[in-house]
Amino acid sequence: MRRFFDRLNIPESQWMAASNATYKCGIRFPNWATRKGYKSYYHPFFSISDNATVRAFAENVAVRRDNFDVQAHPDAFFVSNYLAKRKLAPIANPNAEYQSEYAYHFDAGLIGQFLKEQAVERGVKHIIDTVTEVKQHENGDISGVETKGSGVIEADFFVDCTGFASVLTSKTLGVPFLSYKDVLFNDRAVALPTALDGDALASQTISSALKHGWVWKIPLNNRFGNGYVYSSEHTDADSAEKELREHIGLGDESVEARHLKMRVGRSATCWNRNSLAVGLSQGFIEPLEATALMIVQDTVENFITQYSNGGFTPKYRDQFNSKINLIFDSIKDYIFMHYKLNTRNDSTYWVENRENQNVSESVTQILDVWDNGGDLLAELKRQGSQLAYSPTSWFCILAGMGRFPRKPKKLKPRIQVNDANEIRHFCESITKQFPDHRDTISSMHS
Fold this sequence. Notes:
Layout: H1 2-7, H2 12-18, E1 22-24, E2 26-30, E3 40-44, H3 51-65, H4 79-85, E4 103-105, H5 108-121, E5 131-136, E6 142-147, E7 151-154, E8 158-160, H6 167-172, E9 177-179, E10 188-194, E11 205-210, E12 213-219, E13 224-230, H7 237-248, E14 258-261, E15 265-267, E16 271-272, E17 275-277, E18 283-284, H8 292-310, H9 314-340, H10 348-355, H11 361-371, H12 376-382, H13 391-400, H14 420-430, H15 437-445
Parallel strand pairs: 2-11, 8-17
Antiparallel strand pairs: 1-4, 2-3, 5-6, 6-7, 9-15, 10-13, 10-14, 11-12, 12-13, 15-18, 16-17
Helix pairs in contact: 4-14, 8-9
């Protein structure tokens, strides 16, 4: 997203103010694990400035995997976590030596409106209409779309942004949909807004595990967005809404909940003939790691590159589809790992997730190397071209969920480890270079 707006030469102060956006330092995951000391962990965004603490974290993890009692929880090792805890913005003061990586929270409807206005100003013709029929050439390519008010709109190339309906890709071109239901059980969500609590403004997403799924809590400038992502095979819509209301303390029935259905999986290919599926029409992975817009951007940028190189040449289209499919499948594996590593026993939902045997070869190898004391970094590098997430992210989830040998032994004097307290003091000292989140956002609006 940062790269996207930089290329458009649109400053943060402009688009963030227009969409009630806030900064996102990372994601906290409470209640996914039950082991003492590992009931919550934080997945940070990290930059080159974090190299020293990342190395210290990996070194301590290696000692803890050898069953020695040493601090190896990721929370202790990342400046990003301390910024989020103190509700600071991840924008360092001028001349600061440390630079933080970050993302955003925003109102999707408002940012869509903002981008539409930007596109129209730059020459895009925007038509609001209803498609009644998709027309095709004799060879199967799409020739145009029949609309209620504008007649037939013809083009050389089409972008399918018709959501889960996938009107061009699935219904017209007949491209198969490959479901992820065997590994990602969640197919429903219910969402409710709540008021902000106090003057301070949070700068992290919280993804809390509940009985049949998990709840997001996203801070915008004007409200919290809350939503319960759950499995319809394990609970129903009314029960899910009740559980969400209890979790967020919202008994006011006048605040209406939005219930959503999700089709989790991907199209077998997203570039087909003269049509490119983007967004929900190409596939969807539940929003646990907020990857949907990243996939959209990767799809568009990779398409531009491949089309520029070879046009409609099947070779370049196949290369593109293989790359996008790999991104989808590798993100699916990382999301699945959250469920595979859970240690909850309060519902069949969590037990079935943990005991799920529909495990990809990639995940199987990562778990095998981790559990048996192998060189995880070497394994992750070996799989590098197939992984969407960095080695540090894999270390964070495995360590953060507490997948370590139980009853660790007392540390031996000859074993060198990094002092977590020293690292904590270092991280806390760095936070002095960063401003208050609320003040930073308010300055954009003023």
